[in-house]
């Protein structure tokens, strides 16, 4: 089944070249099927790249998926054109009367701020509280995961001495391979991370409503979820493209920042050699398992 996105969305051309099956509203209306309605709160600075990352994974599913992109009104992004935001994004006030089968909240480059100091934090908490009754399951990524842990469970982030950037090995925690979210996962797998903060593994293990699913000896807790499946948190970026960490590293150098090479990423630790994508299969597994077991299998056919 296809993913349904606006016909003029720039990411569409890239995904078409990759043979991701897509359709427009007119085509979708001819199918006698209720699509899964997914709302994406995209807080990443390069909106169009993130759109491509997520749509690629959401489109690799036997389910028809209808996407709504959500923007903040209390903060206007500096790295995206106003016309793109007006054409393809909507505000919370325009969709809060609706119910969605799934929601994705992305990361954001604002980790150095306390949550309450983030310009759109009040708006963010309103959306997260709204989702409790209006969304079947939410997937939170990187800073979005830390925000969910803080808002819903009181688990705060803490700063790292240096940026956690690279490709890290992870292990399924405490025999949780039988958890539906991890079906098909290897006992050990790799995933990208890119952040300046972390969360306490002990606090997550002590939270009665949370399940810790996967951890990394180097990068810390990676996957966790609420026991009812409504909140799934990933502190890393399985959705990243092959070159995303390279682009972030080069961007930081251009800004004059003192940054180290992403670890376990460039062949021979040489930034001039092309990195290999060794996490793609688990990225598809995570998103397809979430869509199937925590969204499709749990959502009502008709919301009341």
TrEMBL record:
Record Gene3D superfamilies: 3.40.50.880
Which pathway does the protein contribute to? Amino-acid biosynthesis; L-methionine biosynthesis via de novo pathway; O-acetyl-L-homoserine from L-homoserine: step 1/1
Q: Where in the cell is it found?
A: Cytoplasm
Name the major location. Answer: cytoplasm
Q: Where is this site: Important for substrate specificity?
A: 194
Specify which residues bind substrate according to the UniProt entry for this protein.
Answer: 163, 194, 251
- Important for acyl-CoA specificity, annotated site positions: 111
Q: Which Pfam families match?
A: HTS
Please name the GO terms that the record assigns under molecular function: homoserine O-acetyltransferase activity; homoserine O-succinyltransferase activity
Q: Active site located where?
A: 142 (acyl-thioester intermediate), 237 (proton acceptor), 239
NCBIfam families attached here?
metA
Name the protein family. Belongs to the MetA family.
Name of the protein described by the UniProt record:
Homoserine O-acetyltransferase
What organism is listed for this UniProt entry? Salipaludibacillus neizhouensis
Q: Which gene underlies this protein? A: metAA
